[in-house]
Amino acid sequence: MNDHILEKDCETILETPFLVPANRTGKFCSAAKCIYLCILLETFTFHVQGGTMALVDNILKLKADKSALILAHNYQRPEIQDIADYVGDSIELSRRAMEEKEARIIVFSAVDFMAESAAILNPKKKVLLPVLGARCPMAQMLTVEEIKRSRSQHPRTPVVLYVNTLAAAKAECDICCTSANAVEVVSSINADTVLLGPDRNLAEYVQRKTGKTVIPIPECGFCPTHLLFQPEDVQILKAQHPEAAVMVHPECTFEMKKTGDFVGSTSQMCRYAKESGAKTFIVGTEEGVLHRLRKDNPGKKFFLAYEGAVCPNMKLNTLERIYASLKEEKNVVTVPEPIAKKARKALQRMFELK
Ligand code: SF4
What we know:
Blueprint: H1 3-15, H2 30-66, E1 68-73, H3 78-83, E2 86-88, H4 90-99, E3 105-109, H5 112-121, E4 126-128, H6 137-140, H7 144-153, E5 159-162, H8 167-170, E6 175-177, H9 182-188, E7 193-197, H10 200-210, E8 213-216, H11 231-240, E9 245-248, H12 254-258, E10 262-263, H13 266-275, E11 280-284, H14 289-296, E12 301-304, H15 319-328, H16 337-352
Parallel strand pairs: 1-2, 1-3, 3-4, 5-6, 5-7, 7-8, 9-10, 9-11, 11-12
Helix pairs in contact: 1-2, 2-15, 4-5, 5-16, 9-10, 13-14
This protein binds iron/sulfur cluster.
Iron/sulfur cluster binds near residues 224 and 225.
């Protein structure tokens, strides 16, 4: 049974009067319809859960046989987060990948630039990206040519790149940063002006926090998912839940960030939610993080500021695709050593700050 069949069956039952046992008047009985629907749904749920459980078992067995470690970003599907060895934001996952000693394979359930960073930081491991097409559009917005052009326009100005960049771009920068440490990284630089890319919203945030001049490269880089959040959505939710604390990701617009009681990366949000006395939260980042927030804080309520905030690239990863890539050890992410060497230095400078 699949989704399509179930959907058709439900539609048929709801629209056809005599498909289920009739009552004494000869008319279809809605109670019977409900019971039938429940049985159908239960069968479906059992079937799907059974299938998922078997798939999970197979992945866990393969993982053990092949000595693999599964890392999942906070934006991954709940079922992937639940089987991962470690769930976190980009800096946590990079660090975890860098420090891994025992595993032979790292399955990186996220997008291209994160798997690349793992391959750069731990070149002895085989790094698999379950779907090679899981590419971050924001990372594609900054080319090597753009960095070189900006450097020539602003000579002697340090270049700070968000980890959401491709390896070739990282190789051209002075130091990397993440949304969790961008303010600290820029504060640590001995210069009043820095170039920062590719997210102009992060650049604006860092400029405000550090008081330095932060020039975005390219001029208009952005995350299409975080751009979907609008302050109006927060106002509506706030009217329904006036007691709620608002958490917003730095990749959101300035107007959206202004609505936040807290601005930070996904893992910083998880810590904030745990430590905060608030019981209700409005969340301004990709919907995947709600799974972790709800799991870690069973007594608290979380509402996504905008229901459509789903990163389609992150969601390309599925259990089936993780299984296939691990089984065949396919979709290996590699970075040519001359690029990896330079990019590694930029990443290590960031790690040395803490
Ligand atoms: S949420 Fe935005 S920055 Fe993150 S992978 Fe998706 S598009 Fe890229």
